[in-house]
């Protein structure tokens, strides 16, 4: 029996996931984060990029999970990987060795230069919220060839000033990474549920380059704490195709059956 949800319009989160998946290519070696990055990377693998190599922080290389993992320690990752290496080898040889083309990150907060906070909300010594911390994100942010960020728009997330810089984006502007001896490109796009932002070539400040179908400039500007800029030639993100939506929804359905409401 056909799935009645298959004909439903794409949700903003589905549009974000599809847009992120499209940014990946068949030859990429991708360091995958749990959550939205994992959904995007596996959607790419199941559609236009079957040859992509997915690597998770636990050391699983070339993994091809049938369902989305709950954590980097999910057995699904190891069972479907080409090989599993130790975490020290993963970071020293693969990540710090420059063998990973793209890293996918998210965060609790992001600023105009794509620096990320996953440490605390509020003062560090007396935080309002203590977050999970950096994990491998700081190394991913500096060692992968480039970084894609997936985050839902909102004033709590897209802030004027970070409470704590966990992962380096473009620092305080042009030249910040180079002054620290970092040679990788850093964040090249931030994919949200309303738009895609990319660093301006001259200022390194995140600039809206594409609006998703149905989203307006006001929708975006009202959800970002700084006065966000829009590209002179503003594109419209192509909507998800039926195949992309069907594949993504089937992936989430399998995950729900395997993990319940946690998937």
At a glance:
The chain has about 260 residues and is of the alpha/beta class. It has one domain: Glutaconate Coenzyme A-transferase, CATH 3.40.1080. Helix content is about 25%, strand content about 20%.
Number of helices: 8
Number of strands: 14
Mean pLDDT: 93
Instruction: Tell the overall outline.
Output: globular
What is the annotated CATH architecture?
Answer: 3-Layer(aba) Sandwich
Strand order of the largest sheet: 2-1-5-10-11-12-13-14
What's the arrangement of secondary structure elements?
Layout: H1 12-22, E1 29-32, H2 36-46, E2 53-56, E3 60-61, H3 75-80, E4 83-84, H4 87-95, E5 102-105, E6 109-110, E7 116-117, E8 120-121, E9 129-130, H5 137-143, E10 146-150, H6 176-179, E11 187-191, E12 195-199, E13 206-212, H7 217-221, E14 229-237, H8 242-259
Parallel strand pairs: 1-2, 1-5, 5-10, 10-11, 13-14
Antiparallel strand pairs: 3-4, 6-7, 8-9, 11-12, 12-13
Helix pairs in contact: 1-2
């Amino acid at each position: 029996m056909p799935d009645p949800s298959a004909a439903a319009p794409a949700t903003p989160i589905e549009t974000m996931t599809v847009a992120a998946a499209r940014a990946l290519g068949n030859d990429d070696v991708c360091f995958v984060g749990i959550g939205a990055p994992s959904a995007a990377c596996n959607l790419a693998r199941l559609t236009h990029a079957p040859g992509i190599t997915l690597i998770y922080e636990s050391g699983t290389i070339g993994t091809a999970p049938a369902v989305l993992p709950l954590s980097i320690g999910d057995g699904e990752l190891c069972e479907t990987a080409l090989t599993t290496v130790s975490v020290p080898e993963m970071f020293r040889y693969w990540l710090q060795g420059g063998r990973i083309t793209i890293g996918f990150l998210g965060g609790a907060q992001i600023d105009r230069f794509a620096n990320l906070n996953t440490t605390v909300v509020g003062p560090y010594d007396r935080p309002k919220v203590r977050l999970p911390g950096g994990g491998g994100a700081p190394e991913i942010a500096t060692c992968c060839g480039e970084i894609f960020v997936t985050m839902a728009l909102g004033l709590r997330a897209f802030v004027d000033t970070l409470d704590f810089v966990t992962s380096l984006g473009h620092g305080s502007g042009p030249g910040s990474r180079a002054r620290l001896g970092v040679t990788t490109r850093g964040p090249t796009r931030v994919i949200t549920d309303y738009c895609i932002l990319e660093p301006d070539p001259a200022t390194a400040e995140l600039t809206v380059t594409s609006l998703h179908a149905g989203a307006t400039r006001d929708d975006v500007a009202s959800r970002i704490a700084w006065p966000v800029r829009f590209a002179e030639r503003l594109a419209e993100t192509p909507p998800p195709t039926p195949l992309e939506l069907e594949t993504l929804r089937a992936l989430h359905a399998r995950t729900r059956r395997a993990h319940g409401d946690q998937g």
